[in-house]
Write a structure and sequence with these properties.
By secondary structure, the protein is α/β, with parallel strands linked by helices. The chain has 12 helices and 7 strands. Helix content is 40%, strand content 11%. A hairpin with a 5-residue loop joins β2 (137-144) and β3 (150-155).
Length: 350
């Protein structure tokens, strides 16, 4: 495109007696352009073409609707990218991230500086409550400190036997047991902090027996500072934005409530293909790849625990029967969202 300055230069050179060919060479335009500007003194530049719609344009309404469906929660641009790819979006991630950021309040910055641990030294564990009431749903999350490999399991209660069973499956998924496991004040883990003196806590006897069986030492994060187990806290936020909110909002649009089975189906795929396959922002490495190294420092997985907590020894009373609304999942939901149920990490790797 030739602008006003180039047009002026063409006319000045012509007044100095230069020919069309030489003017075109010096200005860097075609000879036809030179002739046009000399023939039409009022011409300044070519008519600008209307901007072409970007690759995201056809999907903007969908993105806006998905952001609205997730409110008051935030949707991660990376989760939306996976959905758009399935719908034929061929554009890049950056333009989508900028589009989403302009339509969501910025996330609060995390000022905590995390300390790093050696391979096999520490695992951090926490619960996250996703839904309360009769259809309660929680998620057990375990993250290895060095590799950042994660294990996720959705459950309908946070009882001691549920906690211990989830630990066993996490150890199997990781391929070993770390030296220490860090918790907050879970009532199924600790009965009284500093009961025997500073830093000497009274642990739940069944949990302590389980820890001894598996060969790890339980540790508690500092009081009123749950971010001392910041790796698992940050992963829970990531899980909410990248897995839970997209899943729950998408299925809600189909009139379906996410239950434990559907959530674990989605979690198995998400762990394999997203969470443990991404380049971690802090380590700069893929958690699944680092797990291969960390596994060498983990202790062997023991035999299943048969100690102080008998499995299903005291079944809970059944609730009053009530109509089930929105819990039957159409088969199309499973076809489009999930793959066969796998809760553990991939063989080469949570």
């Amino acid at each position: 495109m030739v602008g006003g300055e180039a047009a002026l230069e063409i006319r000045v050179l012509a007044k100095h007696g230069l020919g069309v060919r030489e003017i075109a060479r010096q200005v860097g335009v075609s000879r036809n352009t030179v002739r046009r500007y000399l023939r039409e003194p009022e011409a300044v530049h070519y008519r600008e073409r209307p901007p072409r719609p970007g690759k995201l344009a056809a999907f903007e309404d969908y993105v806006v609707a998905r952001l609205a469906s997730a409110l008051p929660e935030r949707l991660a641009a990376s989760a939306l990218l996976r959905e758009l790819r399935e719908r034929g979006y061929a554009g890049g991630y950056t333009i989508l991230k900028d589009f989403v950021a302009a339509r969501q309040a910025p996330a609060a910055a995390d000022p905590v500086v995390r300390f790093e641990t050696a391979p096999g030294e520490q695992m951090q564990v926490d619960w996250a409550s996703l839904r309360r009431g009769p259809d309660r749903l929680s998620v057990f999350v375990a993250t290895l400190g060095w590799s950042r490999a994660a294990y996720v399991e959705f459950v309908t209660d946070e009882r001691l036997e549920t906690l211990l069973a989830a630990h066993e499956r996490a150890f199997l998924a990781f391929g070993g047991v770390p030296q220490k496991v860090l918790y907050d004040n879970m009532r199924t883990v600790v009965l009284a902090r500093d009961h025997y003196g500073p830093g000497q806590h009274r642990y739940h006897p069944s949990f302590l027996d389980f820890a001894g069986h598996c060969g790890f030492r339980p540790r508690l994060c500092q009081p009123y500072r749950p971010r001392t187990k910041g790796k698992v806290e940050r992963f829970i936020r990531y899980l909410r934005s990248s897995l839970w909110v997209p899943l729950a909002s998408q299925m809600a649009a189909e009139g379906v409530v996410v239950d434990r089975t559907a959530a674990n189906l989605a979690a198995g795929r998400w762990l394999r293909e997203v969470a443990n396959a991404r380049v971690h922002a802090t380590t700069g490495a893929v958690p699944a790849a680092r797990l291969e190294e960390e596994r060498l420092a983990l202790r062997p997985v023991p035999a299943p625990y048969r100690g102080l907590v008998p499995r299903d020894a005291a079944p809970r009373p059944s609730p009053e029967p009530r109509p089930i609304v929105g819990l039957q999942h159409p088969l199309a939901i499973y076809d489009t969202l999930f793959v066969p149920p796998v809760l553990a990490l991939p063989e080469v790797v949570a």
